Amino acid sequence: MESQTPFNNSNDLSLVQPVEQTQLKNFMANVFAYMFMALGISALFAFLFASNANLLAYLFTNRSPNMLGFIVMFAPLGFVLLMSFGYSRLSAPMLVLLFVVYSAVNGISFSVILLGFTASSVLGCFLSAAAMFGIMAFMGYTTKQDLTKFGRILFMGLIGIIVASIINLFMHSSSLDYLVSFIGVAVFTGLTAYDVQKLKNIGSGIQYANVPAAEVKKVSILGALNLYLDFINLFLFLLRLFGGRRN
C-alpha cells in the first residue's frame, strides 16, 4: 500500500480550494453590498434635502443651524463611536439598523456642504472618488505585499490631518486647508487599499474558524463602515480641492 501524502489527495484539495475562495468572495461581496447600500441612502437624503428648501428649514433658523441642525452635524460621529465600541454588545440586526440611520443622517449633513458647490463639480469629484476607490480596492485585494506597515504610516497621517484641521479652525489659513486636503486625498486613497486587504485577511481567517453567521454579519457591517468612511472622506477632500464654489 502506498504511503499517504498531501499530494495523494490532490483531487480532494482541488475541491476544497474553490469552496474556500467562494466563502471569501461571499464575505467581501457582503461587505461591499452594505457599503453601497449606505452610500445610496446617503446620496438619496443628501439630494432630498439639498433640493428642498422646506426640508432644510427644519435645520436652520435665520440661516444659522438650530438645535436639530447641530444634532444632525454631530450625530454621525456618535453613531460611529456607538457602532465601534458597542460592537460586542449589539446584535447584527441592530448594527444594520444603526448603519442605515447613520447613513441617512450623514446624507442630511452632506446636503448642507453640497449646497456650497456647483452640481457639475460635485458629480465630477464623486466620479473621481469612485474611480480612485475602485482602483485602490482592486489593488488592496490582489496585491501580495503586506500593507500593515503602510497602514501605520497612513494612520499617523490621519492623526496629523485631524490635528491640523483643529488648528486651522482658529487660523483660517487657506494654504493649510489646501495642504490638509491634499494629504487627506493621499491618506484615504492609501487607506482604501489597506482596509480592503485587512478585510480580505479577516475573511480568509473566518472560513477556518467556524465563526457563527451572526458574527460574520457583524464583521461585514463594520468592514462596510470602514470602507464607507474611506470613500466619503476621499470624496470630501477632493471636493475641497477641486470643487467649484457657487457664487
Account of the 3D structure:
The protein is globular. It has a two-stranded antiparallel sheet with strand order 1-2. It has 8 helices and 2 strands; from the N terminus they run H-H-E-E-H-H-H-H-H-H. The chain has one domain. The longest helix is centred in the N-terminal third of the chain and has 41 residues, at 10-50. The termini are far apart. With 247 residues, the protein is mainly α.
Features:
two-stranded antiparallel sheet; mainly alpha; globular; 247 residues
The biggest beta sheet, please? 2 strands, antiparallel
- Cα radius of gyration in angstroms: 21 Å
Number of strands: 2
Note the total helix count.
Answer: 8
Average pLDDT confidence is 87
Q: Quote the beta fraction.
A: under 5%
Instruction: Provide the succession of SSEs.
Output: HHEEHHHHHH
> How far do the termini sit from each other?
85 Å
User: What assembly state would you assign to the polypeptide chains in this entry?
Assistant: single chain
**Structural domain tally:** 1
The geometry reads as globular
**Estimated helix fraction:** over 70%
- As residue ranges, the low-confidence spans are 1-19
Lateral strand order in the biggest sheet: 1-2
Give me the secondary-structure category. Answer: mainly alpha
